Amino acid sequence: MTPATGRTAMLRADGFRHVSVVQGERGVSADPQVLFATVLGSCVAACLYDPDAKVGGINHFLLAEPQPGQVVDATAAQRYGVHAMELLINDMLRQGARRDRLRAHLYGGANLHQGMRPIGTANAEFAVRFLQQDRIPLIVRDLGGHAARRVEFQAALGRSRAKIVRDAPPEAPVRARPVFQPAASGDVELF
To answer: Which of 7, 75, 136, 156 could join 32 in a cystine, given CB atoms 3.0 to 4.6 angstroms apart?
Structure first.
């Protein structure tokens, strides 16, 4: 079980314990067999790791920051990058990581719908700015675009990968032909 998400890891055939991280969640692990996974659109996931302590973590935030003056409770705060980043780092420090050794991978920040506010761009810019201000080196950067991504992160080893998720056109419904059963006997009755 990961302390931040409260989710039980599922052991899969590949030998890894898969843990899904959804919006507003985070996960931290020092176990090389734990594989965190998330799917991102305009959201951003920061994958941080300490190569010496061999501990890493991932978050999944929805928006960069609350609106000025907006009151946000503790649960909702985790959906914002400004809180999600600090919570993730603090969880990692508790497991032996050091802030000065952290490395980062960033994913997501897509703008999925043209003509709408570019939330993905704002999220990506926030994450990059946060890392720069905290002097955390950005090793992998896969941000922006117009498609969703599926991200997997082997946190303890600092290994990540992302795959573009494309929408598939809906399949046309197939109408089944009725099956006619012959009468129980060979007799035909006419009306």
So the answer is: 156
- Select which of 43, 47, 64, 85 is catalytic: 43
User: Residue 72 corresponds to which amino acid?
Assistant: V
Which pTM does this prediction carry? Answer: 0.78
Query: Which tokens sit at 68?
Result: 């000025």
Distance in angstroms (rounded) separating the CA atoms of residues 148 and 78: 21
Domains of the chain: 10-165 (3.30.1330.200)
Q: Which residues of 18-42 are buried (b: 16+ CB within 10 A; e: fewer)?
A: bbebebbbbbbbbeeebbbbbbbbb
Clarify whether 47 is annotated catalytic.
no
Outline where the chain has alpha helix (H). 74-77, 81-94, 119-133
> What order of strands is seen across the sheet that includes strand 138-143?
26-29, 55-59, 44-50, 103-108, 138-143
